[in-house]
Amino acid sequence: MYQQFFMKFYNAGLLLLFTVVFCFIGGVKQLSAQTIMAPEILCVSTDENTGDVTISWELPTDNCGPFEAYVLYGATNINGPYLVIDTIFDPLQEEYVHLNANATILTWFYYMETLRDCPGFVSLQSDTIQEEELITPEIEYVTVTEDGIEFFWDVSPSTQTEGYIVYYYVGGGFANIIDTVDGRFNNNFIDTTADPNSGSVSYTVATLGCNQTSLFNPSFHSTVYLEAGFQTCETNVALNWTPYEGWDSTFLEYRVLYSSDDIDYDVGGTLTNTEFALPLSLVEGDSVCVFVEAENTQNGFISASNKVCLNLDLVRPVAYQHMRNVTVNENNEVLIEWYQDGQADINSISVNRSDQSTGFSPIFTETVVPPLDPIGTLTDTEVNASQSSYYYTTTVQDDCDNTLNSGFARTIRLQGEAANSQNNLNWNAFEMENAVINQYVVYRLENTLPVQIGTTAPGERTFSEMVEGDDVTESGAFCYVVKAEYTLDIADIAVTENLESRSNIFCIDQESIIYMPNAFVPGGTNNRLVPVITFNRHQSYEFKVFDRWGKVLFQTNNINVGWDGTASGSDLPLGGYAYVVRLVKENGDVYEKKGTVVLVR
Predict the structure, then answer these.
(1) What is the pLDDT averaged over residues 368-381?
(2) pTM for the complete prediction?
């Protein structure tokens, strides 16, 4: 046994004794003793039930000559003596079970060497390895970098450490595996998956080796998640962040760093709490980037938060708000238009209505989502503009709660009446700030299309039209609309344009008149008895002629057909005959005329 122990150290020394250098004229030749690499023992683990020990290793890469064996040595003391546990003749075997080792009581130390038929070669021995518990590493810190979130921990003191398992800590004692890191001394990991700009991310780690894994470290570490907002009404950058988790808060402080170019950073404040109002001298269009450093003042570790860059759009107050138009559509609804400051930081817009120039009430309020169109529009569907004239105004509020009113605009309400084949119209003035009325234009609707029939001066708001009703196409219902043509001149926004505001549609019904002659002469100039009716467009019509005993001699529903003085094809004698004319107009009005006509022969 002593000889085997001695040979371990003796053979290792031969490598130094066999190095010889020969010098020749014309060059130098180096001759050195060759070595046979030993397997690298990776893992020693004990079966807690049987006490057997499993040893696993990594195969060496030597191929100097025929393989003979792997020799496994063991001892229960680090200083020996070391005995041959077994000789392994399979060159591809990577594991061996040391039976009856009683390793639940004894501590075993192992090393290995390789035997090959390579004369002149020296076999090296592996490191001496014992079974040891995998120790969970201590976490140093996590920090946000340009490449991702970097996570650092102490190297595990376990010599059989093969690597590490990195976890997301999700709370409640639970963690999800992210990835593994190979190598005992590789003690950091860069996470390129998690987004540090979405929230704080928590990490922990466990040791991996010898076909087992340690418990993960329950003392997880979490990144600092920074949120920043520009307090536009106070010109401060408002910061708040999640605390760094994992260090003793006694030794924790924060530094706020900011930069206008994302290159050179200045310290804006050092504090222990997790919110800060960063005062800056800023102008429209400035930008600023901010991040927070958490420092462990006990060991000097520094963790950076995510970086937030802001384009500082200062709250631009509303420079103007002007009415552009109020006009009535075909449904007697009101379309409202206004000019709004699209460059201002508008928070909300209200449209207000009244039936007089004061006492406005909001009918619509909208939270503004940029971008804002230069012209705002709204259709008020809750009114009937034929029943009243309405006043409208708009109000805007910016992000600092400053408000501005547009001034009002008033719709045109058209009214009128029928009088002896004449239609008389009247309307109220169109009113709006910055608007100069050029004229009012009166239209009559023909087949729903407006046909201009006249104009009036800005101060004249009445119009009369004589109408004829002897055309059978006429119904007696005449519909009109008035438009105010005006020039809008708004100096502060350099707007000059010609627009028009439309009134409601107003219809006037002329009464129908039924004319009948007292007598007619068949075969004469007026050889047929035909009623003459003004404004006679109708839904039903009936004309009947009777004799003195009430017998119907003639009847028709055609307004153009008359009686020729016959009955059943025979001429009737001279005399008086009764008639009834009944007309139902398109609007449902009923007109009826009864009388007697004399037939002359």
Answers:
(1) 94
(2) 0.49
